[in-house]
Design brief:
2 copies of one chain form a homodimer. The first copy, chain A, is an alpha+beta fold. Chain A is built from 8 helices and 4 strands; from the N terminus they run E-H-E-H-E-E-H-H-H-H-H-H. At the A-B interface, strand 4, helix 3 and helix 4 of A face strand 4, helix 3 and helix 4 of B.
């Protein structure tokens, strides 16, 4: 019996994008349901009481397993489809990957997404009025600090958690890519980060993200350019 | 060679408390360093670039492993000290535990801690002035909604993720216990949650949390009362 998978996601949600990249890298086939999470569709809330994306539904014969929230899905995928291994090969690598997952899920999310994406994307999707320039400026400053940190790591390392591609790279790329959709990543000032992002962007797992478009939210011209 | 462990934590940090409960339940001995994370002690930032607690440092002979952030530490402990198992015995249990970890780490943290603990605790620790009554009111309302959700789960289940104690219970109890330190949990309106909390509070792993006191922040009278 093969497992059938359906991912409920919002294309411009960094958490959903982490899962799409992991599924793509592991060459796991899945159906997609694009969710407008802010509309609180009852079917989505029934699957995940928090009402948030991503949610992975696996059916295997008559059995259904619902896995909610990005970290739960990523840990689950490492358990059920261990190859290629993306968390890390030993305790130290896994600790470093998970530290960086938390970094992007919380610190980056609070400091950058909570300001920049909220102003540029959520306010439009939810009809909350015009963006606040002060918030956008604060978000862009925080973004530069985070890019600086990634730049520093990448001058010492091949990939974010060390010598091998991991979920840490996908977490970072998922977050940067949504900001990049709106043209707000100052790549030219961060050459090592830019080279790293070019490598991730060129991977087959990234292709579906480059075709994402959302009504009313057009991406910048270079968004899907592999030689940006 | 035995592994020596040191936990850098802040006693009233819900994320740190999750780890202390897990270590206690697994009967893993550890040294403690109480951190005032808001003072950005260089040694803490060197261990964890985010500057946040908790951080677990393991030394085994000459080898040192640093594990930063609560989720990373909890997943790590399940790998290195699997008994008693606290994540869940099968994929469905683990998915449910991790869903609830995310619920408390993000949703509860945003909606309750970000308002109520920020106003009642952080502002005092960081010298940010008087609490804002509107924020406290909004935080208390959100707290009631979360208690209602826990109450609903506990009328259907013995423990939060199902039939066995798990990290989901520790995540919930860690968060509620810090609010409870300040006397803000309306237990009487949520009888199933109250019974569940009494059970957790009576466990040996919880004892160290009941003796926590922080200068300038006195707990309410019933805080360490097992029959509250």
């Amino acid at each position: 019996m093969t497992v059938e998978r359906t991912l409920h996601h919002f294309p411009l949600d960094p958490a959903s994008r982490q899962v799409r990249l992991a599924l793509g890298e592991k060459r796991v086939a899945f159906h997609e349901v694009a969710e407008r999470y802010w509309e609180r569709r009852p079917e989505l809330t029934r699957l995940n009481p928090s009402g948030m994306t991503p949610v992975l539904v696996e059916t295997d014969g008559g059995k259904t397993l619902v896995v909610c929230e990005s970290r739960a899905i990523l840990e689950h995928l490492e358990e059920v489809t261990p190859e290629p291994e993306l968390m890390g090969r030993d305790l130290a690598e896994r600790a470093e990957t998970r530290r960086l997952l938390q970094w992007f899920d919380r610190k980056f999310d609070y400091e950058v997404n909570g300001l920049l994406l909220h102003e540029k994307m959520e306010k439009r999707l939810l009809g909350l009025g015009a963006p606040d320039p002060a918030n956008m400026r604060a978000g862009r400053e925080a973004l530069r600090a985070h890019l600086g940190y990634v730049e520093k790591l990448l001058t010492e390392r091949d990939w974010l958690n060390g010598r091998r591609l991991s979920l840490a790279d996908f977490a970072a790329a998922a977050n940067f890519s949504v900001i990049d959709y709106f043209g707000d990543v100052p790549w030219t000032d961060f050459p090592a980060a830019r080279t790293w992002y070019t490598k991730i962007k060129s991977r087959p797992c990234f292709r579906p993200l480059l075709t994402d478009r959302w009504p009313g939210l057009a991406p910048v011209a270079h968004y899907d350019d592999l030689d940006f």
